[in-house]
Q: What sequence folds into this?
C-alpha cells in the first residue's frame, strides 16, 4: 500500500487554504500519520529568503520582471523538492504543501502572461516532473477573497496587484482545473471553516483507505 502522499492547497488570495492545511495536518497527526507542512515559495532556508525577495519587494523601482519572478519561484521549488519534499516522500510521510506548480501556471502564466508551453516545460524541470497526488482548490471569487485580506497583518506584493490581475489568475486556475479534473478537488471557500474541513477530511479518508 502507498504510504507517502503529496497533497497541495491552491486558491486565490484570502481563500483560507493555509487555515485548512493546518486543520488537515492536525487531523492526520491525530490519526497517527507523519505529516510535513510546508509552503511555496519557501519551505527551506533558501526558499524563505527567496520568498522575502519576491513578496516583500518594494512596490516601485526596480520592478521585478515577469521572467525574473518566474525563475525565483522555480528556484525556490527546485530547492524545496530536493531538500524537503522528495526526502519526506522517501520516508513515507504525508506532505501538505501550500501552493505548488499550479500556482506558477496561474500567476506567472495567466496573471503575468508568460507563454504556456515554455512555462509548462520550465515547471517540469524545476519540479523534476513531480506532481501532487491530490490538490484542493479553495474556490472564492477574487473580489471576495481580497476583501478578506483586510484583517491580515502582512499584505504582500502579489496581494497588491490590481483586481484585473487576480481575475486573470482565477481564470487561469479554472483552466488548470478543467485539465486536471481527477487530481484537483474544487471546494467552495465561502462555506464555513468547519464545513470545508469536513469535506477535505472525507476526500482524505477516501485517499488513505
Ligand atoms: P501566499 O503563500 O500567501 O499564498 O503567497 C504566495 C504568493 O505567491 C501568492 O500571491 C501566489 C504567488 N505565487 C506565484 O505567483 N507563483 C508561484 O509559483 C507560487 C508558488 C506562488
A:
Amino acid at each position: 500500500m502507498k504510504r507517502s502522499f503529496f497533497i497541495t492547497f491552491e486558491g486565490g488570495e484570502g481563500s483560507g487554504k493555509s487555515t485548512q492545511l493546518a486543520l488537515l495536518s492536525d487531523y492526520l497527526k491525530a490519526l497517527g500519520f507523519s505529516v510535513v507542512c510546508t509552503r511555496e515559495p519557501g519551505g527551506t532556508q533558501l526558499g524563505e529568503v527567496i520568498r522575502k525577495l519576491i513578496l516583500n519587494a518594494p512596490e516601485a523601482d526596480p520592478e521585478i520582471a515577469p521572467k525574473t519572478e518566474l525563475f525565483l519561484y522555480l528556484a525556490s521549488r527546485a530547492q524545496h523538492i530536493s531538500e524537503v519534499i522528495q526526502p519526506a516522500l522517501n520516508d513515507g510521510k504525508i506532505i501538505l504543501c501550500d501552493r505548488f506548480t499550479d500556482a506558477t501556471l496561474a500567476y506567472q502564466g495567466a496573471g503575468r502572461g508568460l507563454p504556456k508551453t515554455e512555462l509548462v516545460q520550465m515547471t517540469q524541470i524545476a519540479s523534476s516532473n513531480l506532481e501532487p497526488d491530490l490538490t484542493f482548490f479553495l474556490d472564492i471569487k477574487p473580489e471576495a477573497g481580497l476583501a478578506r485580506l483586510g484583517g491580515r497583518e502582512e499584505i504582500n506584493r502579489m496581494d497588491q496587484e490590481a483586481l484585473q490581475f487576480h481575475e486573470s489568475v482565477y481564470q487561469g486556475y479554472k483552466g488548470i482545473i478543467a485539465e486536471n479534473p481527477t487530481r484537483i478537488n474544487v471546494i467552495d471557500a465561502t462555506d464555513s471553516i468547519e464545513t470545508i474541513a469536513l469535506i477535505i477530511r472525507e476526500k482524505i479518508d477516501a485517499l488513505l483507505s
